[in-house]
Amino acid sequence: MNIAFFSNRPYMQAAFTEHNHRHGFNITWFDVALNDTTALLGQGFDAVCVFVNDHLNADVIRLLAEGGVRHIALRCAGYNNVDLDAANRAGMNVVRVPAYSPEAVAEHTVGLMLTLNRHIHKAYQRTRDANFSLNGMVGFNMHGKTAGIIGAGKIGLATLRILKGLGMKLLVHDPVQDNAVLAMGAEYAPLEQLFAESDVISLHCPLTPDNYHLLNRHSFAQMKHGVMIINTSRGGLLNARDAIDAINTGKIGHLGLDVYEEEEHLFFEDKSCQIIQDEIFHLLSAYPNVILTGHQAFLTNEALSAIAEVTLDNLQCLADSLPCHNKIN
Ligand code: NAI
Predict the structure, then answer these.
(1) Is pLDDT of 264 > 90?
(2) Which of 38, 121, 160, 231 has minimal CB crowding within 10 Å?
(3) Hey, whose CA ends up nearest to atom 27 of ligand 1?
(4) What is the DSSP string of 29-56?
(5) Cβ-Cβ contacts under 8 Å for 269 (sequence gap 6 or more)
(6) Is there a domain that residue 329 lies in?
(7) Given the CA of residue 99, which atom of ligand 1 is nearest to it?
(8) Ligand 1 pocket test, candidate residues 109, 204, 295, most atoms within 8 A of CB
């Protein structure tokens, strides 16, 4: 099978090359993202392998299909960046990696919480400058505080497990109830209750048309003053403009973002010598109580290895015309 591998990065190529020894696929590596302007590169391949910021809208899918592409292999869990109806119409298989390391994302999530709470990002800079003042560095005990988890699937559950270890009270909002969540002592709650009672709110649900900008000025208004918000799920779940207003009033006390609605034009690239044309991003990165990471919550050796293994296994199933349980259309 000939595979066009978009949005390639060295750490991805290393993991896929290692696992491809078992398959012997012919992989062509493209650093560029797959989108309207690059879709023609995919023509002539059997499959495209894509990541979170590749943009497979109806036009891209049509161009790929015209070029003979039959399979779309997502090397991620979320698939909000693929027009599934268009893929169905084109008769293309779409496969994904439903879980590669929930713990990797959960650990990064809690890392953001602890860093923000205890000002570790500021301490790192201060001590390098021999500034040992503790002014402005006061945090709070996580123990005894309430965490509100929105979406308790694999990553939400792994996050709950760590937060339980910290001694937090756990509230969960998820339309689907899971005994594993209840067994952890967590309580399911409507969003209004979760907003009103949580000291820390963390998003772990997929982005769907129904929950776009789930966190916005109306939801912030229902939250505790000084609430900590963490988003390691998808940028579109949070209205960043409204979040800035809420930071300015002190309603949001800490904001940790591993994902950003406009990340497609920023993340996974070195933009350090460019003038970034995104005022919201500049505002967010200027606040001392905001931490942005560039969609790296998944980035552990274990996760990369699992992503490569499952993606190539998915493609092997399709190559052999076998049923693939990670097919989503
Ligand atoms: P999952 O499918 O195991 O769990 C998602 C949960 O969200 C399910 O329990 C579902 O019932 C629930 N849910 C769906 N709509 C909801 C809503 N409107 N409100 C509350 N809950 C809702 O997915 P998993 O593996 O836990 O991943 C969650 C999300 O994390 C992915 O969709 C993806 O966007 C994000 N992600 C981010 C990564 C990163 O590196 N930052 C890496 C991997 C995933």
Answers:
(1) no
(2) 121
(3) 155
(4) E--SPPSTTTGGGGTT-SEEEE-TT--B
(5) none
(6) no
(7) 25
(8) 204
Minimum CA distance residue for ligand 1 atom 42: 298
- In this predicted structure, the answer to whether residue 265 has a pLDDT above a threshold of 90 is no
Range of the domain at 204: 102-292
* Residues marked as catalytic: 234, 263, 295
| Structure token pair of residue 186 | 């967590």
What residues have CB less than 8 Å from 76, skipping those under 6 apart? 51, 52, 96, 97, 298, 307
**Structural domain contains residue 109:** yes
Give the per-residue pLDDT at 78: 85
Residues 233 and 254 in one domain: yes
Q: How far, in Å, from the CA of 138 to the mean position of ligand 1?
A: 32
Domain of 37, CATH number, reads 3.40.50.720
CA angle 216, 221, 225 (to 5 degrees): 115
For ligand 1, atom 32, name the residue with the nearest CA. 206
Q: Which two tokens stand for residue 181?
A: 């969540």
| 152 alpha carbon – ligand 1 mean position (Å) | 7
Taking only Cα atoms into account, the Rg of the chain, rounded to an integer number of angstroms, comes to: 21
- Work out the mean pLDDT of the chain and round it to a whole number: 97
Whether 201 and 92 share a structural domain: no
